[in-house]
UniProtKB/TrEMBL annotation:
Domain of life: Eukaryota
Protein name: Ribosyldihydronicotinamide dehydrogenase [quinone]
Cofactor(s) needed for function: Zn(2+); FAD
UniProt catalytic activity: 1-(beta-D-ribofuranosyl)-1,4-dihydronicotinamide + a quinone + H(+) = beta-nicotinamide D-riboside + a quinol
GO molecular function per UniProt: dihydronicotinamide riboside quinone reductase activity; metal ion binding; NAD(P)H dehydrogenase (quinone) activity
Residue stretches making up the Flavodoxin-like fold domain: 2-210
Major place of residence: cytoplasm
Keywords: Cytoplasm, FAD, Flavoprotein, Metal-binding, Oxidoreductase, Phosphoprotein, Zinc
Organism for this UniProt entry: Platysteira castanea
Its job: The enzyme apparently serves as a quinone reductase in connection with conjugation reactions of hydroquinones involved in detoxification pathways as well as in biosynthetic processes such as the vitamin K-dependent gamma-carboxylation of glutamate residues in prothrombin synthesis.
Protein family: Belongs to the NAD(P)H dehydrogenase (quinone) family.
């Protein structure tokens, strides 16, 4: 069976994001997948990138450089326990699903902190090994999130502009940079502002998509896909 890591960033299990998480865990488990969930709020995951992420001596104690220090610490096995645990989950996963509400055109701080701290140089990328050459090439990723605004608002004509502009830093700047292949995002637009019936339709659509997820082809991770 395939291994799936769901990195989940919502404070309330009874939320719409919580329902999407529950469906993903149930449906993928039913398919015989091994599903692991990193529930960041429940874990009280530390989003700040600090020198606490390095165990033992610093490479340069005179001037702290987080990128250099975590790279050196990774090479010698000196990263903090929580980072090692998350990296192990990533390493074992065939698919990474990120489930969250869109905050300010981006992911919540706790999830961005996960990206900042877990995807360190040496583990996820190297300066000579990025994008198609990134170190996590054997993996798929999928961003599943909810918005406050309607789909019309996230269009070329809408007040928020095309959703592809929002996806670019997350899908291209993080996942593709690390070599991870990217599936089409799953976006539930404004679940708080629609009818109960519409919300049920959204949940059903997610269930249906998950049934054939492994047959999907990744998107063409190029500027053309985002800005054509």
């Amino acid at each position: 069976g395939k291994k799936v890591l769901i990195v989940y960033a919502h404070q309330e299990p009874k939320s719409f994001n919580g329902s999407l998480l529950k469906i993903a865990v149930e449906e993928l488990t039913k398919q015989g997948c091994s599903v692991t969930v990193s529930d960041l709020y429940a874990m009280q995951f530390e989003p700040r990138a600090t020198r606490n992420d390095i165990v033992g001596h610093l490479h340069n104690s005179e001037a702290f450089n987080y990128g250099v220090e975590t790279w050196e610490a990774y090479k010698r096995g000196g990263l903090s326990k929580d980072l090692v645990e998350e990296q192990k989950k990533v390493q074992e996963a065939d698919l990474l699903i990120f489930q969250f509400p869109l905050f300010w055109f981006s992911m919540p701080a706790i999830l961005k902190g996960w990206m900042d701290r877990v995807l360190v140089q040496g583990f996820a990328y190297d300066l000579s090994k990025a994008y198609d050459g990134g170190l996590l090439q054997d993996k798929l990723s999928l961003f599943s999130f909810t918005t406050g605004g309607s789909q019309e608002m996230y269009s070329n004509e809408g007040i928020c502009g095309d959703m592809h502009y929002v996806l670019w830093p997350m899908q291209h700047g993080i996942m593709h940079f690390c070599g991870v292949k990217v599936l089409e995002p799953h976006i539930c637009y404004a679940p708080e502002n629609v009818s109960e019936e519409k919300r049920k339709e959204m949940l059903t659509a997610w269930t249906q998509r998950l049934k054939t997820l492994w047959k999907e082809e990744p998107i063409d991770c190029s500027p053309e896909w985002y800005f054509k």
